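Forum: Protein Structure Q&A
Topic: Joint prediction for protein chains with partners

I've read a bunch of threads here and the consensus seems to be that you should model interacting components together rather than docking separate models afterwards. I'd like to see that in practice. Below is the full input, 958 residues plus whatever partners are listed. Could one of the regulars post the assembled result?
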Amino acid sequence: MSHYAEFLSAAADCLGSKGFTRDADVMEPWLTDWRGRFTGKALGMASPASVEEVSAFVRLCADYDIPIVPQGGNSGMSGGATPDRSGKAIILSLRRMNAITRFDEQAREVTCQAGVILQTLHEAAEEKQLRFPLTLGGKGSATIGGLISTNAGGTQVLRHGSMRAQVLGLQAVLADGSVFDTLTPLKKDNRGFDLKQLLIGSEGTLGIVTAATLRLIPAVADRAVLWAGVASILDARKLFLHANKVAGEALEGFEVLPRHSLEAVLDYAPEARAPLQDNHEWHCLIELTADAATAERLQDLAMNLLETAFEEGLVEDATIAANETQAEDFWAIREDISPAERAIGPAVQHDISVPVSKMAAFVAEAVPLVEKRYPGTVGVAFGHLGDGNVHYHVLAPQGAEPGAWERTKGKEISAFVYKLVTDWGGSISAEHGIGQLKIHELDHLADPVSLKMMRAVKQALDPEQHLNPGKLVWLADKG
Amino acid sequence: MSHYAEFLSAAADCLGSKGFTRDADVMEPWLTDWRGRFTGKALGMASPASVEEVSAFVRLCADYDIPIVPQGGNSGMSGGATPDRSGKAIILSLRRMNAITRFDEQAREVTCQAGVILQTLHEAAEEKQLRFPLTLGGKGSATIGGLISTNAGGTQVLRHGSMRAQVLGLQAVLADGSVFDTLTPLKKDNRGFDLKQLLIGSEGTLGIVTAATLRLIPAVADRAVLWAGVASILDARKLFLHANKVAGEALEGFEVLPRHSLEAVLDYAPEARAPLQDNHEWHCLIELTADAATAERLQDLAMNLLETAFEEGLVEDATIAANETQAEDFWAIREDISPAERAIGPAVQHDISVPVSKMAAFVAEAVPLVEKRYPGTVGVAFGHLGDGNVHYHVLAPQGAEPGAWERTKGKEISAFVYKLVTDWGGSISAEHGIGQLKIHELDHLADPVSLKMMRAVKQALDPEQHLNPGKLVWLADKG
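Posted by a regular:
Agreed with the consensus. Here's the joint model:
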């Protein structure tokens, strides 16, 4: 038997018929990332049912020198879960491992296998009057393992932090099949290096996340959603600082969008209504929340925030959502920006960050440079002002050919944007990760010391490059 | 010139007379850790004045194969900053680098060089109505660099997290002299591995912390300090859960102490007064705090907590400090426990943690096992119930010989305690780190997978073992 035939036979033995397939139809949906940017081939798809099976299978792959591409919900933004075109790698799907194995209401902890879907976790927490404080658009498909491997963000990072901050304990299978297990969390533990955080956000290149213990917080007992119109992004920044001061820890979200984005949504979504009557250059969507212990004063706090903002001349106009329906409507506008802007025509998108205190200045100063340099383009920046995280779309000039424009001019514009953001001390990936989408850019633009450290760590923990090769970081000799 | 003579001459050239000494009197205080457990020798002591000097000096040490022991305030608890007895290592003191280089009130960020003393940072923050939310007994000597390298804890971890959670950006010199620099913090940055967290808590074995950007929070506008007597540690746990529920994010500290510790303090500190009239087996010290945004309701919240705790039969007796003086007095009792227990006679101390939900059971069940196995000893457990962190002292039987008892019987007892805590899924070092004090224990008791990962990472980033050798983790071939 050939090397591959031997491996395939051993893989089928290891995982059984439910756990291993080479059926082209079954594999097909998992060979392309959901945005359709990357399509690869795979030698097969493994779907182990337990950490023991993952461990045995990874050991088998190590023995046969077979690369592994771990995959959760396949809803990542950077092609991190899509195999390359060689067809030599195995997709390792964690989707069958979808049990919530422990729920400790009193300690506010939940232990999930990697394949648990975010929405499922939200619902399980809500049933117990608790809440998992991270959410994002892909919650119906994104899995806990994928969210951890990409250190996912979302709209609640301002107050609650990204995925990194939610993980109390972790279980992962390393390149040699051994199992790193800290699922029983210790709040304080100073026994050396923070291996848990090293694995989180490593995009499956250092280990395959198989389970995690996550923190929960008390359910939201009340919320207030405000919409404000301001004259400039710099005024939005002032309003943010004011909100931070007045609302303190109740401030859960602070999103900004330009006039262009609001108008795009109003065109795109027939049911969308403008929250304010007049036109404003910039809009702020602000959410305050409270749990049962602090709910009593939340509406007063929101009113106070609004009144003082008017008094201090920080807003042109503003309103508080009158009820939950209106609150949902406000948020729907924010969530529709991406599809609405995309519906206008070809564009290149950038998920970038700069130091929080510089974001307003970056949008005001740096973004127009792009429009000037590439005449006819329109720059639209929106997102998480409180996190310094800008979703920055550059729309193609009218008449540009979809597909072709992105591949040529769009690529050039992105390179310019990434250079610009790096010069501002920012990041070319605020929340979407590197994957295969930005591995070239990271290789060129990353701080050489950080890159050298990453390569050394990758070399130390996965010397044969079996774990998600071609993602995030190359070793020096393959770069 | 000999190898060493050449190195010493180059070192003096590199750092100048202020920056390099071999004077025995000058070095003497820095060769013994402050608890007097470890004394070493050094080839010399370097005191660079800038990150450039640290970098150049580390490169020089690499060239001459000279090991480096980084040192801050020399107030660590595990001998992590004390050189070994070979006299071949250089102490690298960061104390001259003691400037606060940037203070951004609006962004609530401060950038400090490694040698800034914690107390100095507290005062700088207070001047601007802000607060650095980590404090501990050694604040008058502990430096930011040392606190970061040991991931220091303290009494505010419950709400604000350990040092790890305070560091927004980091600068460190690596083994080859290159400078890792993320001092300009990005709230969101998904460009690969979390190198910052890898360096934090690595006890100078992966890099030498030279500066950091730290988060600040609004100053405390009001606080309420409560003292409660309860019948058992299990009741203390119930009260903790209740306090958590009622006070939510206002709950900043929850400490427990047994009757033995209170009585020891009353004997030891002439000015100490018992907060409650009757005797109780266990005592809880609870602190609620609020910033300006939430101060208005804090005293009501504290009163509500107290009343409902009485109603639900959670306390035998309880009181709220009537004023700041009384609040300070309550905390003084907590802070005097260690010296008071030490004054009784020989003892071995353990800084251990178990899962938060198991701490009460551990103290109730596991701790008496030690007294039973070692007749005449008295076990005293106190500390951070909300963090699962127990300071666990075992007092020698009456008449035991100081010094000799700790070295013989005490050592045996500690081994038993560490085995016990490991069996409970806990940590042999909750907040004090490993250093040279527990390197043997970690080598024996750590999860083999974690240990293997740590060795691989150490090998990758400091292959010649120049950075703080003999601390935290040995490489396999030296262990």
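Chain B touches chain A through 82 residues (CB under 8 Å).
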